[in-house]
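Q: Give me the 3D complex with S-adenosylmethionine.
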Amino acid sequence: MTARTDEGTVPFRATLGRSVGLFSAFRREQTDPALFYGVLARDTVAQLRSYTPLDGRLVVDVGGGPGYFADELRAAGARCLCVDSDAAEMRLHGRDADAYGVQGSALDLPLRDGSVDVCFSSNVLEHVPDRTRMADEMVRVTRPGGLVYLSYTLWLSPWGGHETSPWHYLGGAYAAERFARRHGRRPKNDFGRTMYAAHAKEMLRWARGRADAYVVDVRPRYLPGWAKPVVHVPLLREIVTWNLLLVLRRR
Ligand SMILES: C[S@@+](CC[C@H](N)C(=O)[O-])C[C@H]1O[C@@H](n2cnc3c(N)ncnc32)[C@H](O)[C@@H]1O
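A: Here is the predicted complex, encoded as structure tokens.
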């Protein structure tokens, strides 16, 4: 039986084995996306449940794409709405997330102030040109006492350039041009157009500077629990953290 805390949250253990499993699945992203995104969504929802109960809660998945997370959130008892700016992304891998999503921008969420219990976003912040505006929007739509779960890939991490990695270390524009030359097409994650340099420092400052929300947790999303202190080490954190998870509670 799953252990539950008093508040209805469920403990989550970020073990080394769990990280190895995630990175193994990650290597199959291109060949078997359903497997990879299914593994990631189950892991993420289990992690989310350690911060907030989900049963009966209204969760918005900002930039939810084809809706793998939405499926898992629903399986956990949540009501889930996806907001994504790209209708084609919502139909990726033969899926049909627009059946329960709306097309809209993370920079101007089509939701009222304080209207959701949980505002969730995975791997979207590095795709918007104005990161703090997206994060502001996530806090705005969350009700007092509700939770914001915001995670994104750091630019200086080994996967910072996405499919143009590791050449992004020589510059995003160079990495994109190099990709275009070799593949005869622009990368899907095209620096300065659909992908931007997202750092930990900027968003940690944003999170700690808010008066209307407080920081519940900051951690490297995919790494074991013992790696958590790395988020406090300037520069090193930008490389090692890989994917930064910020969890805030709305006052
Ligand atoms: C890398 S995918 C992540 C999908 C999913 N959240 C995940 O973690 O698997 C980025 C998603 O963000 C969406 N996106 C990018 N810019 C956006 C914006 N300004 N507003 C809403 N969605 C956006 C894209 O359409 C895409 O579905």
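A quick observation: The chain has one domain: 16-154+198-250.
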